[in-house]
Specification:
Layout (H helix, E strand, L loop, with lengths): L5 E3 L5 H12 L13 H9 L3 E7 L2 E10 L8 E8 L8 H15 L4 E8 L3 H9 L3 E12 L3 E11 L10
Parallel strand pairs: 4-5
Antiparallel strand pairs: 1-2, 2-3, 3-4, 5-7, 6-7
Length: about 170
């Protein structure tokens, strides 16, 4: 299948991004956000301190991610990211393409690693994808996620080191 092009998101993408986000959080099984997470908060969350990217197919936004420092100050050398793929585009390699793109962007920005703070343990497709791309589960948050169908399930902290870039001052 063709790899969807990925480009920097703009505020013109906000409607499409918001629609995907709402569709992904609606089942209550993959992200910690609920129906009370409003559009303005979403906009600030995705276009604030992070850089947002979108994947397109046929001129339509079908997936997105945001990438930025996991923490400020002494933790700013570790990236974090959040990904969503439109339900109708899931299972077609879009998520993998987004993660691979984010790893390249994080490496180019000089991050030394990337950490996912909250991966729902029952989100088997995401956990498996991240593992195949070199992430390890480095922590388990017991019963940290209120799954709509399964009740209280664990959330994982996942991490992978990024190869040092030429611009890395610690090299």
């Amino acid at each position: 299948m063709d790899q969807p092009p990925i480009r920097a998101a703009t505020h013109d993408d906000l409607d499409a991004m918001w629609a995907i986000f709402r569709a992904v959080i609606a089942p209550g099984d993959a992200l910690p956000f609920d129906e009370h997470f409003d559009r303005d908060t979403f906009r600030d969350h995705w276009f604030g301190a992070h850089t947002a990217w979108v994947a397109e197919r046929g001129g339509q936004v079908i997936g997105m991610y945001k990438l930025g420092a996991n923490h400020a100050g002494r933790g700013a050398h570790i990236a974090s990211a959040t990904y969503t793929v439109a339900p109708e585009a899931q299972g077609r390699g879009v998520g993998r393409r987004l993660v691979e793109h984010s790893l390249a962007r994080a490496r180019a920005a000089g991050f030394r690693g990337i950490q996912f703070n909250y991966v729902v343990s029952t989100n088997a497709a995401a956990v498996e994808l991240y593992r195949r791309l070199g992430f390890d589960i480095v922590g388990t948050l017991p019963g940290a996620f209120r799954h709509e169908q399964a009740g209280w399930v664990d959330a994982y902290v996942m991490f992978r080191t990024l190869e040092p870039s030429e611009s890395d001052p610690a090299r």
